[in-house]
Every structure is written in structure tokens, then in C-alpha cells.
Specification:
DNA replication (chains A, B, C, D); mainly beta; homotetramer; DNA binding (chains A, B, C, D); Single-stranded DNA-binding protein (chains A, B, C, D); DNA-binding; 5-stranded mixed barrel
Chain lengths: 166, 166, 166, 166
DNA sequence: TTTT
DNA sequence: TTTT
């Protein structure tokens, strides 16, 4: 049984449009890059900013919704858990990655639309914001129970459902 | 100003005794390795366990308390934020690390004492559990404002306060 | 759709054995009284304690587990949401109550067993602690979607499923 | 020492302009009414909405900021703890109230401005949103350590600092 | 009413 | 490496 609590709560903005892929079994996997910025005063009393970029992953139904409604610049609430992965890079080196596996999401009203999407076509408009979505409903049955494949620096191409290492 | 929320809540057990170091300015920095285990059913309906090992860092007064009261096996509640760091390894490669910067902690009653400590002297008994500590009080003034140096695979030896990269 | 986040995280001890009832439809509803104690320094610098007693409600499968495994004195992690209710007391007066509707629970290792139960028979031993349970799985299908009836000072006797006011 | 965790996280919208009062000692106390709405499917498969109205209280510096920047309609993230109070109403009856004592707040970008304020003059424009504020800094020293007086149905007029019942 |  |  589960022992321990591993919970993450984020509110931040997307640095790019989401990227959605599908497993061979048809399950959506959407990844976003989410910025949270904090401030502290350094020892000279100056305001110092620091931004963390979180790699957030949405599976299944939540992945479809995230891919459809979120855009670069969108403001979003995410709840999930931290997942650490280790893999061998293409250079043969061991690498580590950290992902936030989302199991709840809610769009907030800031900068929806976003636009000017990053690399790909992007630029589909976001729909109505301020809705909450979770991955816990019965039925489709992929929620945290069906979490993350290999992580960011790692490629996630061409993988079958069976490749999901968990 | 701050934009966004970056909050982590963990309940887990220490895999080893804490490691405490001090900056040249005398500030304590304590690191622990904290396990949280979750379960899911795989597609064959079998229970699959997965453990995440979180690297948690406590600064200042909180670092002193963590170093003094926590032990291998201790059960603890931690609240903090995620911090991602990038550094150059001794092999000249860019590496990444992820730390949880604690700003609150509370010992829970499970397996206090721990004992059988790892490598170093260790084995001092834990004191009374079930107390909550935070890093927000005025005075000493190191709290999240004085967060993490380079991360785990990275060495944290011999650094002066000025070396703290934030 | 949902707008907003309403999330509560509690770690505390039960003041009494749980009370479990069943709807006419057979759904379990378990209530516990959970203490959390905080400290502050008053203006004279003295430590002042204050205990909050949370009325936590578990529905469905989670209600069965809570009723079976928790006991007076048990230490438990609860995650849920706040629910405010208004009802007319037997004296004809409008009254208010506040409940925490649990959707996740995890027993912690403190004082399991409890024993010496309050008023009723009680005194069944708690089972193995340190397991996490949630109400989100498909199937039975009562989770937050099937939350709380009238609240504490209000009686919760003899109600049919149809009486659940939501 | 503290035993237990009592943590609340809310994202919602203000139903009215904030109300700010000052203790005789000059400490600001600001109250807001914050809505969070959730949905569930009832047994007929229809979407059922339910809104909780949280009474959130900000003290000290945080109270000043909340009073100055929040407005009816503002979207806000609040972190704090639950506080239950019992008092004797003007009708001589015992009454109960529940407040969320905020210790962190961050304005979100939705509907700032708000306008059309409720009862009082209101209608000052909100300032720049998306900033995070906490009550933990040293100095003034009112944070959760200086929480809530009597609660909503209860009057909070004319009270001196010494009247604060904690 | 719990717990430390 | 912990814990159940």
C-alpha cells in the first residue's frame, strides 16, 4: 500500500504551447513547461527573482484537455506529484529528470489565448477558462496510476503502451 | 514580485541520517533523503509499487533542528518548494538536480529513534517527536530567502556564504 | 464547471473512535473528530497553545476504511475540501456547521490501537497503519461527488440516500 | 509545541469588496468572502454546482495589502489555516463560526478591477495583480501568531488588541 | 475529545 | 537508502 504523501501544487504560466503525443493504445500524453517565479532579498537588500521551470505531464483524459485548452502564456493551477526518472542519454551517460505528474488542473483567467505559439503551428485559441479537471473519475481509468514515461531530455517518441516503464 | 505558487507537501521516511554542513557564515544546511511510496495497478491488475526519493534541504534554524532531531527511519512531514539546479559535473558535463527546499517540518511518531545509522558516527537518539518548526520567524532571517546551493551529485563542500548561488 | 480550488490538508489525532452510519442505499458515512494544535507566542512572550477540532467526513469506500482502521488517538493524514452547511436546529434556530469532506486519507504510525474507546463498545483494534486510501477510483462512484449531509450539531439519523441535500 | 497540520489552499473570487478594520494597536484586519464552486454529477447524471463561501481573514501587513489590492470579483490564491470559534450571540445563543486565517496570498489575473463594489464606497481600482505576499517576515510580528478574533456573525467592532482572544 |  |  501507499506509504507517504507526495503532493505538488503549482500556479504558473506556460512558457510554450503544450505538446501532445499519443501512445499506441491511444492515450494522450501532454507536456507543458510551467514557470513559477519567487523573490527574495539578497544580503544587500536587493530584490532577487528566480524562476523555476516545471515540466508537467498530463495523462489520458487530462492530457487531452490540457492539450486542447492550454496555450503559451496560459495561467494554470496544477496539482500532482513529483516523479524522478533516470535514463541513459544518447551519449551513453546516465541522466536524471524530474516531472510533475498532474492529477488535477484548473485554468485561471490570466492571459488565456496566449498566441504567438512557439515552434509549431500552434495558435489555436484557448477555450473557456476557469474549469477544473481531474484524472480520478472511473471509466477510462488512467490517472496517476498511469504516470510518466521517460522524461524531458529523453525522447518520448514511438513508444508503445507497453514501453511505459511502470 | 512573486508570480506563481510552487508548493510541495511530503510525508515520508528518511533513508539515512541527515547530513548537516555549515556555511562560513555559520548557517546550517541539512540534507535528507526522503522516501514516498505509491501504488498503482498495472494493466494485469497487479499492485505495482514505486518509491520516489526526495532530496530535501533545510536551511538555518530549520537545518539545525532537522540535523538534531531527524534520524534514519524517521517519519516526517515537510512543506517547501521545488528547486531545479543545473551545474557542471567534474566530468565537464552539464547536469541537473532537483531539491525540495523545506520551509516547514514536523516530526511524526513513526519509528523515531531510527538508529543503526549509516556511515558516520550517527546514532544520537532522536528527541521528542511531533513538533512543528518553520523557517519564517524574523531574526536569523534565513528562510526560503536563503535557499539551496548546488545539488546532490554536486559537491557542497567548502563553500562560503558568498558562494550560495542566489 | 468547477471554478476555484477548495483544498484542506490535515494531520492530527482522533479525539474519539469514528462513528459510521449507512444510508438506505448502503453507503458508509464515517465521521471523526480530528485535533490539530498550533502554538504562538503571545505578547508577553509566553507559549500559547490552541487546538482546532475538525469534523471530518468520509463517504463510501473511504468511509468503510476509516471506520474500520481508525481509532481514538490514531494519527492520520487527511486531504479534502471544506463544506459549510446551514440547517434549522430543533429549537427552530438557524445554525451553521463546517465539515471537512475527505477524499484521501493515510494512517500514520502514531498511537495506533488507541483503545480505551469512549462511550460505546468500540475497542476493536486498528489494523496495519501507513496505508493510503482515496475515494477517486471508479466503481462505487461515491466520492466528493457524494458529499456531506447536515452537520454535527445536526442529527444525521434515519436519512435515506435521497435526503442527501446535494 | 505544534502537533498536527492544519492547512487550507483556496483559489476563488471575492463576492464583495474587502472590509478592513484596525485594532487599537493599529493592526489591520481585513475580511473577505471568497467563493469556490465545485461540480458533481447527481444520480440522474445531471451536473450539480455547489458554491462554498469562505470567510478569509488577513492580519497585519497582509491585511493592509489585501484591503488595498483586492476587490469584489478579484481572483485570489489564499493559503492559511482553519479556525473555529464559538461565541455567544446577541440573542444569548451559542453560535459557531469558521474562518480561514490567511498567511499567504497571491492575486491572480482574473477580473481585477472588479468594480461596482458592494455596500460602502468601494470602487478604488485594484493595482497590479500577480504578486505574492506572506505574513511570515520578521518585524511587525503579526502572522498566524496573531490570528482571528470573533467571527462573522459576531461583531468585530471596537475591540482593543487586548480583546483578541488568543 | 486527541496528541506531545 | 526508508517504511509497511
Amino acid at each position: 500500500m501507499a506509504r507517504g504523501i507526495n503532493k505538488v501544487i503549482l500556479v504558473g504560466n506556460l512558457g510554450n504551447d503544450p505538446e501532445t503525443r499519443y501512445t499506441q493504445g491511444g492515450m494522450a500524453i501532454t507536456r507543458i513547461s510551467l514557470a513559477t517565479t519567487s523573490v527574495r532579498k539578497d544580503k544587500d537588500g536587493n530584490q532577487q527573482e528566480r524562476t523555476e521551470w516545471h515540466r508537467v505531464v498530463f495523462f489520458g483524459k487530462l492530457g487531452e484537455i490540457a492539450g486542447e485548452y492550454l496555450r503559451k502564456g496560459s495561467s494554470v493551477y496544477v496539482e500532482g506529484s513529483i516523479r524522478y526518472d533516470k535514463y541513459t542519454g544518447q551519449d551513453g551517460q546516465e541522466k536524471y529528470s524530474t516531472d510533475i505528474i498532474a492529477d488535477e488542473m484548473q485554468m485561471l483567467g490570466g492571459r488565456e489565448g496566449g498566441g504567438g505559439g512557439g515552434m509549431g503551428g500552434g495558435d489555436r485559441p484557448a477555450r473557456t477558462p476557469r474549469q477544473e479537471y481531474g484524472n480520478q473519475g472511473g471509466g477510462g481509468g488512467q490517472r496517476r496510476q498511469a504516470p510518466a514515461p521517460a522524461s524531458q531530455p529523453a525522447p518520448m517518441d514511438d513508444f508503445a503502451d507497453d514501453d511505459i516503464p511502470f
